[in-house]
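Worked example 3 (structure in, sequence out).
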């Protein structure tokens, strides 16, 4: 592949994709992605050994046995794996390798807060993670080598599974579609669709763009925590208490008063803060990984500034949430921050069109903190 920055181009109108495919049915998109030559397998393996990087190795084929080795991984492990039937998976590569995160600008047909991360998998011949389904939308992008994808039916938690303490593998999968993904090919899968990808050669590297599907239980926990952090302690009182007809029961009046008192702690402003804080917090903190500005500049000399791959920005009126923290904006700063939140790399002309003195001060502060890097 040519030395260009990662790019994904949806091969149909975004409106048509959202209407006909999004969360409805799979779509195979040949040659829809370019600029996928970096990272290579050695770089990915090196990243997997770093502290704080979530990585795992899966070995197995067919009915098994299947083995899972969770990180932190040791370098010696790779010499023990054999010549086939194993896969290395590294989570949130975009958080650590900023150049990888630039692919996400190609997904602007979806809200930025919906993006979770880019996972990468390297596999030798026969390598696979087994037949399974995900609970979220995913775009599977072939970067190197080739992979055979088999697509099955829509599954749920009641679908038969192979017995394994850690891996949720399907026990049998009726194949409805089958594709051989070559470099640049992209497969979109909605939540719940069974799939099984097997490496066809020893240089199979696949990018997996996963989308955030907020769990309402987790969101409720965030909301409760945010609201309770600001709440004063209030105790139940009943100064108008009358003699009960039956002291053994909880009356409807008392029950409603208790519930109302608890729910009154959920203030609208606290709920909003919790939602924005949660959705603007990156999956992992990778700010200690420096941006390879020289490499990016070589591939696109027009880029003047890039956002670090582990930075999440979410606009809220005259406020922006950056990695879970709110920043109030002036009218002079808002156009710049709107630009910064809408994409991940910026040209000199784009920046100059929205630059003011106070905006420049804010950008300089964020550059000093490592959130952005000039090229």
């Amino acid at each position: 592949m040519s030395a260009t920055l990662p790019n994904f181009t949806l091969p149909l109108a975004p409106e048509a994709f959202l209407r006909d495919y999004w969360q409805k049915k799979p779509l195979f998109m040949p040659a829809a992605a370019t600029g996928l030559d970096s990272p290579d397998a050695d770089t990915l393996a090196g990243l997997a050994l770093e502290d704080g990087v979530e990585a795992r190795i899966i070995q197995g084929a067919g009915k098994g046995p299947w083995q899972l080795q969770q990180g932190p991984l040791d370098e010696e492990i790779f010499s023990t794996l054999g010549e086939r039937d194993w896969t290395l998976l590294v989570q949130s590569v975009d958080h650590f390798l900023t150049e990888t995160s630039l692919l996400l600008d190609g997904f602007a047909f979806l809200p930025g807060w919906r993006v979770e991360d880019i996972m990468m998998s390297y596999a030798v011949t026969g390598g696979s993670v087994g037949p399974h389904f995900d609970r979220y939308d995913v775009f599977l992008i072939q970067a190197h080598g080739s992979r055979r994808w088999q697509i099955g039916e829509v599954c749920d938690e009641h679908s038969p599974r192979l017995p394994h303490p850690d891996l949720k593998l399907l026990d049998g999968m009726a194949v409805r579609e089958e594709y051989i993904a070559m470099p640049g090919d992209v497969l979109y899968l909605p939540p719940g669709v069974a799939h099984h990808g097997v490496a066809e050669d020893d240089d199979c590297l696949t990018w997996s763009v996963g989308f955030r599907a907020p769990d309402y239980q987790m969101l409720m926990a965030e909301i409760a925590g945010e609201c309770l952090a600001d709440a004063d302690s209030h105790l139940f009182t009943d100064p108008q208490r009358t003699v009960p007809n039956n002291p053994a029961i909880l009356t409807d009046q008392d029950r409603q008063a208790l519930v109302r008192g608890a729910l009154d702690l959920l203030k609208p402003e606290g709920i909003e803060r919790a939602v924005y804080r949660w959705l603007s917090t990156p999956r992992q903190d990778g700010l200690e990984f420096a941006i390879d500005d020289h490499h990016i500049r070589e591939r696109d000399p027009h880029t003047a500034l890039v956002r670090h791959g582990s930075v999440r920005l979410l606009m809220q009126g005259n406020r922006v949430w950056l990695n879970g923290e709110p920043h109030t904006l002036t009218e002079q700063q808002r156009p710049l921050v709107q630009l910064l939140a809408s994409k991940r790399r910026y040209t000199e002309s784009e920046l100059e069109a929205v630059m003011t003195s106070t905006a420049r001060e804010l950008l300089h502060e964020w550059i000093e903190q490592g959130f952005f890097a000039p090229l």
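Notes: The longest strand covers residues 115-123. DSSP finds eleven helices and 19 strands in the chain.
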